[in-house]
Amino acid sequence: MNDFINLYKENLIAKNKSNNTVEAYITDIVGYYNFLEENNIDPLENDYSVNCYVQAITETKSVKSIERCVIALRSYYRFLSDKNLIKEVPKFPKVDRNERRDIGPILTVEEVEKIINCIDISNIKGVRDRAVLEILYGTGIKATEAISLTVDDVNLDLNFITCKDGRGLERIIPFGRAARNAIVEYLSQREKISKDEKMLFLNLNGKGLTRQGIWRIVKEYNEKASIKKIINLNTLRHSFAIHLLENGANPKIVQQLMGTHVMNYMDLYFDYVSKDKVNISYNNFHPRA
Question: Which residues form the Tyr recombinase domain (predicted)?
Answer without folding.
Answer: 102-283
